[in-house]
Design goal:
442 residues; Pectate Lyase C-like; 3 domains; ten-stranded parallel beta sheet; 1 helix; 44 strands
């Protein structure tokens, strides 16, 4: 099936897969419900939901293994200049995390941010849109260490504590900073998130990053996220000579038309791993001003219209990276990267490097879609908009519109007029059954 799109040199698309894999109901777990019209005095049931503030800040009784389902709506935190949004203080335990999730395929918008604080631990936050609706300054502003002259909430996801937390399939955009993720958060993971157009313009430079992070103990993992746009760094794993930038696994991400991907600061770094990422127009820099660093592994990455800089590491693994500066000849054919989502079996990221600018590209989806499965292909910058491509995988061959030859049933034909396509498969709301399990994975 062709996907006609406006001509552009680089785009990204986001899509997910329909699957019939459901969560089993865990023992001793309770589903709690949050709604825009909820109350602190509610019971947390569908008929008497909680309000979002008291549900997240620990005022309600939430136990390990419980799930807080947030129902459709726009949740506006009281505006405050520099405010970080709703406080989150929820604690699970190993093998029994607390889940905070959007209710079954519904759009849930958190306006003003989330602020994860101790004693949060073993907390999984899924499928939320996080933004700031107040406008950016109309013109570049002078540097101000308090950021007060930005005159809007800080927003984003702010993580000041918690071990073994996971932030899954979030959409973070138009915040002053997408993610602020600090050293007290240990052994935690960000997976499948879409992060774009965060920050603001200063008179000196762009401010606010997609992710600003520091780490020491335990590995912080950033995997299978999509980054685009923004004013500051794409990844700003950085600190002064007193701050730690250690133990990062950065794997399977897609970053395009954005700014530098940095891991390093003024203090020596160790345990840096950058594996199988795709960068388009995004330089990658390991090491900053520290006189020496310890070890890094950079393996299997693709950099197009960008370079790789590894600075003053004593032990380096630099293997199987393809680096294509702007003036270097491109390979023939196409390169297709299709990465299933680790936590949602109906979702995957797709990257297509269409070196020869063919009218259509066949993508083998047999390991993700069964005959009869419905799929949608979405633009990550407009993740909640109608899909740019929707269809059903059929038993017979599929003929691309305007194309002369049929494609096998195990492929989807994607029409792209220029060079590169990024994509994620997202589940369609169409089902084979009218029943809705209480923990359907959407």
């Amino acid at each position: 099936m062709p996907m006609p799109l406006k001509p552009c040199l680089f785009q990204a698309v986001s899509a997910c897969l329909l699957s019939l894999a459901w969560w089993a109901q865990p023992a001793l777990a309770t589903d709690r419900h949050i709604a825009v019209n909820g109350s602190q005095d509610g019971l947390g049931t569908p008929g008497a939901p909680w309000d979002i503030g008291s549900a997240l800040d620990g005022s309600q009784k939430v136990l390990p293994n419980d799930t807080l389902w947030i129902h459709h709506g726009h949740y506006k935190c009281a505006p405050k200049i520099g405010g970080m949004g709703y406080s989150v203080k929820l604690a699970g335990r190993e093998g029994a995390p607390v889940h905070v999730r959007a209710w079954q395929g519904q759009r849930v918008t958190i306006d003003g941010g989330l602020n994860v604080q101790p004693p949060s631990t073993h907390l999984w936050i899924w499928d939320l849109e996080i933004l700031v609706s107040e406008p950016r300054p109309p013109s570049p502003v002078a540097p101000d260490p308090t950021y007060a002259n930005v005159k809007r909430p800080w927003g984003g996801l702010n993580v000041y504590g918690g071990r073994s937390c996971k932030f899954i399939n979030l959409v973070l955009h138009d915040n002053s900073q997408g993610v602020s993720w600090w050293t007290a958060s240990q052994a935690s993971e960000m997976h499948g998130c879409i992060i774009y157009d965060n920050g603001w313009a200063g008179t000196d430079r762009g401010h606010g990053h997609a992710i600003y992070t520091q780490n020491n103990e335990g590995v912080k993992t950033i995997s299978d996220c999509i980054f685009m746009g923004g004013y500051g760094y794409t990844l700003h794993a950085y600190g002064s000579s007193r701050a730690d930038v250690n133990n990062y696994l950065v794997e399977g991400n897609i970053a395009y038309d954005a700014h530098t991907f940095l891991l390093g600061g003024g203090k020596p770094s160790r345990g840096i791993r950058v594996l199988t990422n795709c960068f388009y127009g995004v330089p990658v820099q390991l090491g900053y001003s520290a006189p020496t660093n310890e070890d890094c592994e950079v393996r299997g990455n693709l950099l197009v219209n960008a370079g790789l800089s590894i600075n003053r590491f004593s032990r380096v693994v630099n293997e199987h990276n393809m680096i294509l500066p702007r003036n270097k000849a491109r390979p023939s054919g196409t390169k297709i990267v299709l990465r299933p989502n680790k936590y949602d079996p109906r979702r995957a990221n797709l990257a297509i490097f269409n070196w020869e600018r063919k009218a259509t590209v066949a993508v083998d989806v047999s390991r993700l879609l069964k005959p009869g499965d419905v799929f949608r292909l979405l633009n990550p910058r407009h993740f909640f908009a109608p899909p740019v491509l929707a269809g059903t995988r059929r038993n017979g061959p599929t003929r691309a519109k305007g194309g002369p030859r049929p494609y096998p049933a195990s492929t989807a034909a994607v029409r792209w007029p220029r060079c590169v396509c990024w994509a994620t498969w997202r589940p369609s709301l169409r089902r084979r059954s009218n029943s809705i399990p209480s923990r359907a994975r959407w």
